[in-house]
Specification:
Elements lengths: L2 E5 L12 H13 L4 E4 L11 E6 L3 E11 L19 E4 L4 E4 H6 L10 E2 L2 H12 L2
Parallel strand pairs: 1-3
Antiparallel strand pairs: 1-7, 2-5, 3-4, 4-5, 4-6
């Protein structure tokens, strides 16, 4: 099992620049309306069904999901089409959040301190986090 994580930026970005905050809030709203959480995969499309996906909010919290399905990039949302350089990423269908942890706990379990884009964590960096999440 892999841990894939992505940052949710603190501030909104200008049009044409990938805006993880806007996209995250769009997914929160869709989930409240009964739709499935969706996100794009890591740049090398290594994410697979059963992996753990985390949204990281720097110095705030980390929200975890399970990857339930992986689909071809043609299913990317229209609102994602403006995200230049990400059109070839698979689309991940995620579970509802399975847990949220504080930033301090994330760091204490060897989570990355600085996150720049969607990443598949190295096994030695993710083992403690995956052990904790898999017990839920």
């Amino acid at each position: 099992m892999n841990l894939i994580y992505t940052p949710v930026c603190k501030d909104y970005k200008k049009d044409g620049v990938p805006d993880s905050r806007k996209d995250f809030e769009e997914q929160q709203k869709s989930a409240k309306e009964g739709f499935t959480w969706m996100w794009d995969a890591d740049p090398k499309n290594k994410a697979k069904v059963g992996d753990v996906f985390a949204f990281t909010k720097y110095k705030q919290e980390v929200q975890f999901h399970k990857i339930q399905q992986v689909y071809d990039p043609v299913l990317r949302l229209p609102s994602w089409r403006q995200n230049v350089g990400q059109q070839n990423r698979n689309v991940l269908f995620l579970s509802d959040p399975i847990c949220t942890m504080s930033w301090e706990e994330w760091i204490s379990l060897n989570g990355a301190k600085r996150i720049m884009g969607t990443v598949v964590a190295k096994k030695e960096k993710s083992s403690l986090i995956l052990q904790m999440v898999s017990r839920l």
